């Protein structure tokens, strides 16, 4: 492998320096609340219920009863401060409530008041406070300024996971009728149509036919984009952004070329036409289960033998960590293959075995860096070996392009900075937060652009790609700078003709 993954970087990025404090700077930044129809479609109350305080505390009690980690996270913080400057939103905004420990305390203080003897007895002296309308507003504001990226937990000596606390808070709010429009509307679309975008089967079929034509025109090779093919070996579950948005669709073309060249029969499903599972962002197991079950039903109906996921960070986390619990057992699939598999692992394996051949010259002039997506980096793996989530994409890139440069080590791997749009925050009304939250990543990117003439940044997550194409122009970079991992493969793969 000729990737330069260990270059010495001496420039002080300044990204670890705490920002100037700007108390309440982001107190007015919050997402649109869900409309009654969005909430009710998911079984939540349409609007804030009358006795919301009592119901919220009861829900908190239920979560504490069912989740030992949540109680441990709320009990074990020693206020050491190690996480305080590790959040990209704190770096970008300077708002102290975006320090992970402060974000946790929004929930912890209420937990102490209602669920600990000391909190009940000493109130504010014990860091406890009752749940009132101001607190609820603070929850809605600042728990929607957490992308659930888990970077802070890497630095916490007790492994306290702010993402879990943020999910619990959102679950409590949904249970009393205070949902977030963006997430709840999208989950409703998946239940109704099968994907986040509300793309109906006929439109999907039309899109895939168009892609076949495009690839044929481009390469002269008849690469198929099959839909609802019974008896195919592989069912590909991919984020719906892959069907049309740039640069996502270039990734989908790359997957199709890999399947074509490897001789693997595969299909997409019009019923399970979405890899994303936004229910994780709102902490709803029931909704996660419902979405995941669409995949099970599609796999059974089509009679496939393998389940493969396309490029999507949080979808891969749900698949890798929870799919068996949510929608298993998968005993009807081919036992030789792990369930699920990631397209990157399949491509990597084919490269290693000589099953596909890549020509770096096809990407001549590109110097590429990689943005490790949070949910791939910190919440899953891609292959059999620990750390494969870092090596596999780098080795695919190294095989596809002439030059690869890693960003500063404090900003990649398990310390990767979030793109700023994860966790259900990829919505226009939060654009100010998204731009500010992207600052640490943009700083690290600037360094490799300045020092190493990096031309492109790869992402293997639909949310990262959407966020960067929208936000990086604010930092002076063109949206075309963001490329899909399989876009590089697509350009460099040597295709055999069908004849
Ligand atoms: S999980 Fe990520 S976004 Fe949330 S507080 Fe921690 S670092 Fe910030
Ligand atoms: S690093 Fe962990 S223990 Fe220290 S303040 Fe943050 S959450 Fe608390």
List key phrases describing it.
499 residues, mainly alpha, 8 strands, 4-stranded parallel β-sheet, binds iron/sulfur cluster, disordered N terminus, Fumarate Reductase Iron-sulfur Protein, Chain B, domain 2
Describe this structure in words.
The protein folds into 2 domains: 36-186, Fumarate Reductase Iron-sulfur Protein, Chain B, domain 2, CATH 1.10.1060; 193-405 and 454-492, no CATH class. α2 (52-66) crosses α9 (162-175), α5 crosses α9 (162-175) and α15 crosses α17 (388-400). The chain is globular, with a radius of gyration of 23 Å. The protein has 21 helices and 8 strands. The chain has 499 residues and is mainly alpha-helical. It has a 4-stranded parallel sheet. It has a 4-stranded parallel sheet with strand order 6-5-7-8, sandwiched between helices. It starts with 35 loop residues before the first helix and ends in a 7-residue tail after the last helix. The chain has helices spanning 36-40, 52-66, 68-76, 88-93, 100-115, 117-122, 133-142, 151-155, 162-175, 181-192, 201-219, 248-262, 285-302, 313-327, 343-353, 374-377, 388-400, 431-437, 439-452, 462-471, 485-492, and strands at residues 234-237, 266-267, 306-309, 341-342, 367-370, 403-404, 456-459, 482-484. The protein binds iron/sulfur cluster (SF4) (2 copies). Residues 86-87, 89, 100, 103, 146-152, 162-163, 166, 418 line the site of one iron/sulfur cluster (SF4).
């Amino acid at each position: 492998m000729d990737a330069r993954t260990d270059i010495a970087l001496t420039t002080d990025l300044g990204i670890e320096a705490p920002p100037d404090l700007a108390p309440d700077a982001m107190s007015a930044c919050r997402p649109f609340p869900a409309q009654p129809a969005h909430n009710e479609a998911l079984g939540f109350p349409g609007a804030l219920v009358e006795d919301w305080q009592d119901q919220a505390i009861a829900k908190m009690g239920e979560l504490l009863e069912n989740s030992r980690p949540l109680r441990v996270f709320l009990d074990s913080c020693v206020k050491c401060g190690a996480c305080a400057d590790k959040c990209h939103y704190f770096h970008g905004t300077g708002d102290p409530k975006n320090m992970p420990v402060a974000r946790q305390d929004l929930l912890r203080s209420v937990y102490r008041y209602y669920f600990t003897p000391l909190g009940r007895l000493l109130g504010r002296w014990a860091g406890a406070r009752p749940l009132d309308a101001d607190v609820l507003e603070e929850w809605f504001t600042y728990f929607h300024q957490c992308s659930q990226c888990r970077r802070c937990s890497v630095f916490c000596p007790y492994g306290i996971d702010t993402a879990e606390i943020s999910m619990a808070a959102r679950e409590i709010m949904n249970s009393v009728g205070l949902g977030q429009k963006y997430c709840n509307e999208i989950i409703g679309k998946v239940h109704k149509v099968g994907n986040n975008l509300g793309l109906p089967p006929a439109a999907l079929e039309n899109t895939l036919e168009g892609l076949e034509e495009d690839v044929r025109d481009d390469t002269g090779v008849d690469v198929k984009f099959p839909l609802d093919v019974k008896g195919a070996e592989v069912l590909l579950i991919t984020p719906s952004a892959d069907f049309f948005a740039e640069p996502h669709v270039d990734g989908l073309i790359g997957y199709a070329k890999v399947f074509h060249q490897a001789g693997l029969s595969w299909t997409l499903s019009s019923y399970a036409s979405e890899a994303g599972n936004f229910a994780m962002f709102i902490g709803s197991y029931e909704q996660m289960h419902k979405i995941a079950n669409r995949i099970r039903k599609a796999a059974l109906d089509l009679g496939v033998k393998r389940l493969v996921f396309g490029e999507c960070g949080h979808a891969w986390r749900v698949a890798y960590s929870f799919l068996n619990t949510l929608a298993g057992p998968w005993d009807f699939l081919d036992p030789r293959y792990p369930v699920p598999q990631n397209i990157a692992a399949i491509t990597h394996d084919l490269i290693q075995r000589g099953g596909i051949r890549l020509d770096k010259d096809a990407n001549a002039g590109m110097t590429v860096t990689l943005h490790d997506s949070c949910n791939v980096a910190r919440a899953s793996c891609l292959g059999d070996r620990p750390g494969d989530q870092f090596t596999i994409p780098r080795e695919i890139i190294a095989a596809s392009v002439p030059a690869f440069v890693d960003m500063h080590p404090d900003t990649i791997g398990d310390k990767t900075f979030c793109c700023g749009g994860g966790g259900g925050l990829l919505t226009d009304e939060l654009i100010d937060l998204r731009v500010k939250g992207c600052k640490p990543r943009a700083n690290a990117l600037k360094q490799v652009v300045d020092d190493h003439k990096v031309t492109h940044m790869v992402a293997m997550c639909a949310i990262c790609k959407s966020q960067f194409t929208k936000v990086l122009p604010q930092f002076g970079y063109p949206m075309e700078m963001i490329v899909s991992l399989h876009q590089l493969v697509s350009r460099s793969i040597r295709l055999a003709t069908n004849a």
